[in-house]
Amino acid sequence: MRRRLKVLLLVAAMFFSMLPQQTREAPADNSYHPLSEGTYYIRSAYNGKALDVQSGADYNTCNVATYWFNGSNAQLWEITGNSSSYRIKPRCTVSRVLNQYGDYVVSGHNVNLWDDIYDPTQRWVFTQCSPSSFIIRCAGDPNCVLDVASNGNVYVSTYQPGKTSQEWYVNPAEVVLSEGNFRFKSVGNGNYLDVQNGADYNGCNVGTYTFNGSGAQTWHVSGPSNWLKIKPLCTANRVLNQYGYTVASGNNVNIWDDVYDGTVRWTFEFIGYWGNGSTQNGGYDCVFAIHCAGNPACVLSLDSYGNVCVQEQQLFNRSQLWVLEYVGN
Fold first, then answer.
1. Residue 215's closest CA among 243, 192, 241, 189?
2. How much of the chain is helix, strand and coil, in % rounded to 5?
């Protein structure tokens, strides 16, 4: 039985409708939106970062902010309840929940974790803001909503129509993915992640090239979901590598001997589905952002010349998105 790899990833429903816009309309639906109970990632439309428990800690008053996607339990939120009152609990805690600090709901109050005392300051409701985003309102005062400051901190503030810092993508967070061989097709140019000339030496460049089905375009993915190794089949043991000792936006991508550090490990963030007639995933292939584990702010990208590098993530930038096509084991 082949080993299964559970990859904790963000699902962004209606992928193309979520491309960033300069202006937004007032919420199309102000009624409470029913949400299926389950585990979700909650991502800010303002800065593109995920709702995150600071340091993944588990104590009362632990701060909640936004941080680059990293696939950890500090960014996984278990949502239970009904449309008039939801509890939002991070997976990194046993029983603490998302909490508006204080005995009463007041605009400007901070958001943190606290033992669940079944108080309206700890219950939330959702109203749909666009086909794919939501306003998250505190049940104790639905006019106070989850907001994010310019420094990434999360608090509640009085609802303002069209304010993007009060809009959130709330999407199911778990996809089961077989460990195995894949091709990575760029959404930016339609070409495939490719080892130049199928060579096997340290520093060999990685770019994109038209499909040819070779081992230079087929990659074996293995390891824990937040520490994935990506190895091309054209090499014996070299892996996808961000060139340099530290991960920095703009650095080139090549192949290198596996040095078991964050420059050669990756995390997959599931963005949505790409319909192309494939038999995988019910007729769709998966679209991902691929984060460098050594610095999750940096993702696998195409530069202006079509070369592959890592760059700081920009929400739904097509040059930073990849269609993951399953090939087999």
1. 192
2. 10, 50, 45
What are the phi and psi torsion angles at 57 (to 5°)?
-80, 170
Query: CB of 69 within 8 A of CB of 49?
Result: yes
Residue 215, token pair as written in the block: 């081992």
The CATH architecture that domain 177-328 belongs to is Trefoil (2.80)
Looking at residue 264, the DSSP 8-state letter turns out to be S
Backbone angles phi, psi at 275, to 5 degrees: -80, 120
Sign of CA dihedral 112, 288, 169, 306: positive
pLDDT tens digit sequence for 266-319: 988 888 776 654 545 445 577 889 999 999 999 999 998 889 999 999 877 999
Indicate the pTM of the whole model.
Answer: 0.77
Contact 139, 18 (CB under 8 A): no
What is the fold of 7-13+32-174? Answer: Trefoil (Acidic Fibroblast Growth Factor, subunit A) (2.80.10)
Write out pLDDT tens, residues 207-257.
999 999 999 999 999 998 778 999 999 999 999 999 999 999 999 999 999
